[in-house]
Amino acid sequence: MEISQVLKFAVEKGASDVLLTVGSPPMVRINGELTPTNAPVLTPEATKKLVYSILEESQVAAFEAKKELDFSLQVKDIHRFRGNVYLQRGCVSAAFRLIPNRIPNLKELGLPPLLDDLALRHQGLILVTGPTGHGKSTTQAAMVDLINQRRKVHIVTVEDPIEFVHTNKKSVIDQREVGEDTHTFADALSHVLRQDPNVILIGEMRDPDTIAAAVTAAETGHLVISTLHTNDAVQAIDRMLDVFPPHQQGQIRTQLALCLLAILAQRLLPRADGKGRVAATELLINNTGVANLIREEKTHNLYTILETHAKDGMYTMDSSIKQLYLKGVITYEEARLRMRDPSALKTA
Going by fewer Cβ within 10 Å, which terminus of the chain is more open, N or C? Predict the structure, then answer.
């Protein structure tokens, strides 16, 4: 068995992910659920051979040194993938995410129309948040592609790894990969303002240096787009603040209150008809009320803002999920399991 066969099978079945781990056959994720392939159960030797067959010598060396590896992979005539290699119980394992060949637009992704306007702003911070595997990178790519079609600007991306490959349209796009073109997100961002950018995409904000640099860039006339791993928009603000020591949090709160444009939280839920997944979203847009709550350490009150400011385009994840259920896009059971307050379904 060759790994190209497994990856080709995943593409043909419309899978989103491939998982190689000892003790199971190669698994594919279809409509959010893991499904075994008909291939043999993987042994430690077979898994290592499969994974190493697609790695370059430098990647093998990096993996064996750090025991973790993120990379992108273009399989000829098949597809592009994002890969992660790791160890579990001393055995090599790997996960692959299929990257669409074409960058979908925001409407095709089922995202709020207001996001088009936000993506075309000239400065500020836009955050996309949600669990792993729920489309954050695709949303980022769609926003960059919209800017690329509409504005004559310089876009610099810092990614780990590069997933969607952009071609220059109206904009000039420089894509930098952590580990290949720069050592870390923080290293790249410490120099990015000298590269004459208008728009900066940061694949993920993981540490205080990266967050501080992103906020400063957004505050000084750049549009910054990045992601976090949180369940909702309010948690994203708390997560950003919590990575800083207490004596720095006041300054970051003030900066964030000034530069934040919006936070989009998203989750992909299985469709009732079994044909793929659909985005449920939550949108928090910065206004005077939101900024004041951030500044005054009252972020818990932002949930009320989300529920009561529909006129400004804001809404909660629960309201999005409820609407998907009412339209018959997802099942009652799916909605019930995903909502913060399932009792709201009883009034539907």
Answer: C
Supply the pLDDT for residue 273. Answer: 95
User: In the CATH hierarchy, which fold is given to the domain comprising 114-315?
Assistant: Rossmann fold (3.40.50)
DSSP reduced 3-state for 320: helix
- pTM: predicted TM-score of the whole model, two decimal places: 0.88
DSSP letters, 136-186, are: HHHHHHHHHHHHHHH---EEEEEESS--SPP--SSSEEEEEEBTTTBS-HH
Q: Which is nearest to 137 in space by CA: 244, 257, 54, 17?
A: 17
Residue limits of CATH 3.30.450.90 in the chain: 3-99
State how far the Cα of 342 lies from the Cα of 306, in Å rounded to an integer: 17
Q: Which two tokens stand for residue 262?
A: 């919006």
Kindly report, residue by residue over 139-154, the tens digit of the pLDDT.
999 999 999 999 999 9
Q: Please state whether beta strands 223-228 and 199-202 pair in parallel, antiparallel, or not at all (unpaired).
A: parallel
